[in-house]
Amino acid sequence: MNYPDDFQREVKMEFYRAGIQVMREIGFISVKTLITLNSGAFVVLLTFIGNAAAQSQFVVPLQSLKFAMLCFLAGLAAVFLSIVQTYVSARRASPYNAEEDRRSEWWLALLSVLFPAISFLCFLVGVAVVVCGVRLA
């Protein structure tokens, strides 16, 4: 069955729009999740420090806590760098820019994945440092 060219073009555009919408939603969810993970872990560590001496029979060395908190802050910084990179990438992808060659911008796509991956890795390292540092008092 042959469809007119206009119809086929419209169907392709609709699939393209749907794909963009899915990527947009995944991006929103991942940024919210990474911010919640890293900032929540930071707050939990602050709470643990405040309550650990008085109520807990477990001790985590101060160096481990400092490094874990630094990892969580680095994870938050990576999320915000991801937001900035997304903004720059969206501005460069505008059809109204006068830039002639966009084929060499593969690094923007790489950064789109790299910053969130770094953020999640920072979260995992921070949690691992705290868990491995727990000692019985």
SSE layout and pairing:
Layout: H1 5-55, E1 58-59, H2 62-92, H3 106-133, E2 135-136
Antiparallel strand pairs: 1-2
Could you characterize the architecture of this molecule?
The structure is a single chain. The protein has a two-stranded antiparallel sheet. The longest helix has 51 residues, at 5-55. The protein is mostly helical. The termini are far apart. It contains three helices and two strands; from the N terminus they run H-E-H-H-E. 16% of the residues are buried.
Task: Count every helix, treating DSSP H or I runs of 4 or more residues as helices.
Answer: 3
**SSE sequence, one letter per element:** HEHHE
Biggest β-sheet, characterized? 2 strands, antiparallel
Choose one word for the global shape: elongated
Summing up helix and strand content along with how strands pair, one would put the structural category as mainly alpha
Cross-sheet strand order for the largest sheet: 1-2
Query: Uncertain regions: pLDDT < 50 for 5+ in a row?
Result: none
Between the first and last Cα atoms, what is the distance in angstroms?
Answer: 76 Å
Computed Rg: 22 Å
How would you classify the quaternary structure? Answer: single chain
Q: Quick one: how many beta strands?
A: 2
Strand content: under 5%
Helix content percent band: over 70%
Q: Compute the average pLDDT.
A: 84
Write a brief caption for the model.
With 137 residues, the protein is mainly alpha-helical.
Which properties best describe this structure?
3 helices; 137 residues; 2 strands; single chain; mainly alpha
